[in-house]
Write a structure and sequence with these properties.
alpha+beta, 7-stranded mixed beta sheet, globular
């Protein structure tokens, strides 16, 4: 099983997603919460901050773990772990993605998301809905 971390970065009630342009054919051309693989002996918080710096040249600060989804792709099993993160600094530069989008949470499922990201998006939408009730 491959452990992958993803960042939920919010701005003005919108969340950041990115369209994958390199790497695994299972996610190529699909939208995802930005992130990447956790290296051997690396903790998840360090991994997500490192991946966002490598892929977007942005500095972020992890706030907390939100939810995970174990997804079976044809060639591997991925444990995708979503963390709430704050933007700290940097200007977007895309290295592994063709575009980014700031999306209203309730519109996340209108994008062609990577299979592992769909349950995470559903959870984020549900969090938003439940927070309005409280």
């Amino acid at each position: 099983m491959i452990k992958v971390v993803a960042a939920l970065i919010e701005k003005e009630d919108k969340v950041l997603i990115a369209k994958r342009s390199t790497g695994d054919p299972n996610v190529l051309g699909k939208w995802e919460f930005p992130g990447g693989k956790v290296e051997l002996n690396e903790d998840e918080i360090h991994a997500i901050e490192r991946e966002i710096l490598e892929e977007f040249e942005l500095e972020i600060k992890v706030k907390k773990f939100i939810v995970n989804n174990v997804c079976e792709y044809p060639t591997k099993i991925v444990d995708l772990r979503l963390y709430s993160c704050d933007y700290v600094s940097g200007e977007f530069k895309l290295h592994d993605h063709s575009e980014i989008a700031w999306v209203n949470k309730n519109e996340l499922l209108n994008y062609e998301l990577a299979q592992a990201d769909i349950p995470l998006a559903e959870y984020v939408i549900e969090m938003k809905t439940n927070s309005k009730i409280k």
